[in-house]
Amino acid sequence: MEFKVKAVRTLTAAGLIMTMCTGVAFASIGNATVTADSLRLRSEANTGSETVAMAPKGSEVVVEEDVGNGWYKVTFGEDVGYMSGEWLTISLTDGTVIPAAQGTQPELQRGLVTADVLNVRSGPDTGYDKVATIRGGTVVDILADLGNGWYQIDSGYVSAEYVTLVGAGYEGSSALGASAAAMARQLLGCRYASGGAGPSAFDCSGLMYYIYKQLGYPIARGSSSQYYKSGYFVSTGEMQPGDLIFFFDRRFDSSGGTLPTTHVGMYVGDGQFIHASTTSYRVQYDSIYGYYAPYIVGAKRIG
Questions:
Q1: Which of 82, 166, 176, 192 is 20 to 30 Å apart from 5, CA to CA?
Q2: Which DSSP helix (H) or strand (E) runs through 272?
Q3: Are 153 and 246 in a shared domain?
């Protein structure tokens, strides 16, 4: 007769896990508390491996083994995997406390899908099976940059060619706004031309007009017309990527003060906007702080 022995785990009062199987016992080396806002439990001891679970700040885990290079094998709930010790405060069974090297986890890298539809594959190459698709304008978490033109995401692997890296400001951005901001990034370096509305030369409002027209949302032409007629006003303190940001500088006002704006750009997150600049005569980044701050007169959201 064949007997199967099932492994049984129990948590002792001292916080030690004992795994009983065929009479052999293994003890943990201590416990740890997660200090990051959210820390990944991974299938292997590296940042490129699969995410098994997410442990929120303050979670308690059992540390089973120090596997080297700052990584620990741990048990979180019923899951076993690996965590970086940079965001763990570890209390060893001998009373030693190892403080977390970092107070918070670094900002999660995110990417905006710029293709109409992006294939997700089971491995980092077009030869692998397609396991899912992602619509254009979707923002995804990037678990690892494999360095060969591919990113690992939760559902598999995607070509980096069709993903634009974005900052944390995209978290709450609409798909339309995120797509507009991504297109603006693709036009960086294009030349400035008075009256230009694309595809290779632009004035300030022509750049906004061209981007939203390509996305199926035609807006007014001219910065003051966009200010009056396009989208709806939002607080400049609550801007999201894709919002139009308007400026008025009387030195460039040829209307004698009858028009509300002299310039327009597109907010793209992290305190930056993209615009067709008459200073450099090209499409470029600039900060909403510093030089441009006194001239901001409003912001509008399209869609």
A1: 82
A2: strand 272-277
A3: no
